[in-house]
C-alpha cells in the first residue's frame, strides 16, 4: 500500500520510455521507407496542400494577433524604463526566434496532427491499411513518408509567412495605436533583425513540422479499434505533438543561443 | 494451390489458430465457415502476410509465403474486404485501378481508367459511377466496387472476407452470383470466409469448418449436408443445441 505511489511512478516511467522507444522505431522505419523507392509524388503534393497551404489562415491569424499583442506588451513594459523605442526590434526578434515557430508549430499540431491521426486511424479500423498492403503498397511509404516530408518542408514556410504577418501585426499596432512613425518602425525592425534570428526560427519550424507529422502518423497507425480508439489516437497525437514541440523548442534554443 | 500446414496464431493468451491444416486446390472455390470470433479472418490474413503465424507453414504453389518477395507475392492476390475498405480520398475508378496506377503493374492513367471502367461494368456498375467517391455509394455498390478492385489486375487467387455481410438478401444474392461467375470466368483460386450459408451454397466447391482453432471438417459442398459431423451439422442448421457452445 505504501509503495503504491512509487509503483505508479515506475509504471508511468516504463510506459513513457517504451513509448519513446516505439516512436524511435517508427522514425527509423519512416527513414528507411523514405530512402527506398517507390516515391509517391502525388500523395506528397496532396500532403503539401493539406498540411501547408491549408494551414496558412490559422497560422496567419495567430501570428497577426500575437504580433499585435506583443507590441502592446513590449510598449507597456518598455515604458517603465523609457525604452518604448525597442518595440519594433523586440517584436521582430520575438516573432522570428520564438513566437513564430512555437505558435505556428502548436497551431499546426492542433490542426494537422489531429487530422493525420484521425485519417490514418480511421483507415486502420476500416481495413484500408490492410487493403493497401494487399494492393502491394507499403503504408509507410504511401501514407507516412509523404506526410512527414510535406510537414518538414511546409512548416518552415508557414513560419516565415507567420513571422512576416506577426511583424506586420506589431507594425499596425505600433503605428496605429502607439504613435510610431511608419518609416522609423520599419527601419528599426530591419536594423536589429539578424539573418540567424530568422534562420533559427525556420530550423525550429522544420523540426516541429517533422515531429507533428511523425507523431500524427504514429498514433494513427497504432490506433485502437472503433470510434473510441480513433478518438484516443487523435487526442494523444495532439497532446504529444504539443509537448514535443515545447520540449524541442527549449532544446533548440539552448543549442542555438547559449554557450 | 494454397497449402496450410499446422498454422498456429495466438494474441496474448487467446490461442486463435491451434494447428490449421487445409489445402485449397488450384482453380477451386473454398469457403471457410465458422462462428464469429473463431479466427476465420485471422487465417485469411495469415495467408496474405498481414498477420504473421506463430508456427506452421503456408505454401502458395509450393512456395513458402513467409519467404516470398512481398510485392510479387501480393501481386498474385485480390481481396474483397468485409466493409469493402475503399479509399475515401480516391474516386471509384482510382480505387479500382489502384494497383494499375502504381508499382510493377503500372499502366498509363487513361489505360488504367479504361480497365477500371471495364471492371466496373463487369460487376454491374455503370461508367458514370467511376468519378464518384466511395461515400456517395450505397453498401451494395461499395461491395461491387471492392469486387472490381479485387479483380482489376486479374489475380490468380481471390479472397472474399464476409462478402455479403450487411447486405439485404437480394443484394447478397447478386454479390454471390457475381463472385461465382467471376471466379469461374477467371479460373482463379478463391478462398471465402463467411457464416452465411446461402453464400456457402452459391460460391463453394469445397467447404471447411473452422472451430476451436482447427479445421473440424473439410469436403465438397455437395457432401456438407450429409457429413455426419456434429459441429458442421449444428452450424449449417443454426441449432442452439449441440457441441458448439451457444452463449445466450
UniProtKB/TrEMBL annotation, chain A:
Topological type in the membrane: Multi-pass membrane protein
Coiled-coil region(s): none
InterPro entries reported in the protein's UniProt record: ABC_MlaE_roteobac, Permease_MalE
Entry keyword Glycosyltransferase: no
Keywords carried by this UniProt record: Cell inner membrane, Cell membrane, Membrane, Transmembrane, Transmembrane helix, Transport
Pfam families in UniProt: MlaE
Localization (cell): Cell inner membrane; Membrane
Main location: membrane
Transmembrane stretches, start-end: 12-35, 55-75, 148-173, 202-221, 233-252
Purpose: Could be part of an ABC transporter complex.
Similarity section: Belongs to the MlaE permease family.
Protein name, as recorded: Phospholipid/cholesterol/gamma-HCH transport system permease protein
Natural source organism: Rhodovulum iodosum
Automatic annotation (TrEMBL), chain B:
InterPro entries in alphabetical order: AAA+_ATPase, ABC_transporter-like_ATP-bd, ABC_transporter-like_CS, P-loop_NTPase
CDD domains reported in the protein's UniProt record: ABC_Org_Solvent_Resistant
Gene3D superfamilies named in the record: P-loop containing nucleotide triphosphate hydrolases
GO molecular function, one term: ATP binding
Keywords from the UniProt entry: ATP-binding, Nucleotide-binding, Transport
Record PROSITE patterns: ABC_TRANSPORTER_1, ABC_TRANSPORTER_2
Pfam families: ABC_tran (PF00005)
Start and end residues of each ABC transporter domain: 2-237
Protein name: Phospholipid/cholesterol/gamma-HCH transport system ATP-binding protein
